[in-house]
Amino acid sequence: MSSAELHSLFRKILMRVAVDTPPSTPPTLEPLELPTLCDGRHPAGIVHEDFSALHGSGGYLARMAHFEAASVAAFMHLAAELDDLGAPLNLIEQAKQAARDEVVHAHSVAALAKARGARPPVPRLTPPPLRTLEEVAAENAAEGCVREAFGALVGLYQSVHAKADDVRATMRTVAQDEIAHAALSFELHRHFLSRLDGEARARVEARREQALAELLHRAFSFEDAPWRDELGLPAADALFDLARAFREELAAA
Ligand SMILES: [Fe+2]
Ligand SMILES: [Fe+2]
Question: Which CATH number is 205's domain given?
């Protein structure tokens, strides 16, 4: 599926969810732990940070910028693994382009955070060694085709709904790029499956199914934040509807 086709599929999901979900009032208290939703591709080997001092919309954006910066390493490592596995040059080049996009995202989302008084923690990584084709395929299936791709859908939602002009403008660029990264993940998925035997293919598909189930679970337990409208984040109910529609549309794609 091309980036343009994925974009129109995501627009269709957003419209479907907008029709089905009645508007709700944001809560007054912030949840203790609020996972960031649109934040690029998490690299294997990322060191867990303490985010307990990062509150409010600025804190959310600082956590997001932290993971955007980590995504640079994720795509550079992916490009190195693709090279090691003898993947076509255009896939390696697309992974490198995604790394360049993530540099821009890290800077632009960090600027949004700093404008709100928050500073993103610099990501620390213990990069894993180059992995086997099946290992890279399994991670791409879960992290690229599900988590980052769903993040792209949420990013598109934010680019439409954010009340803050600076967030809406930044998320337009971020969402566009993240959709391209999701399209790359799907292309990589097809490439990997074509090179794996039947049993390995089934294990990779099972990993994707598992990631979709985890996504639904995460969306189900997501709590709403008082400043969700400023950032254009979906309300908890809408997020679950988005995750369900994402799973249905991807299963049919
Ligand atoms: Fe990103
Ligand atoms: Fe990305």
Answer: 1.20.1260
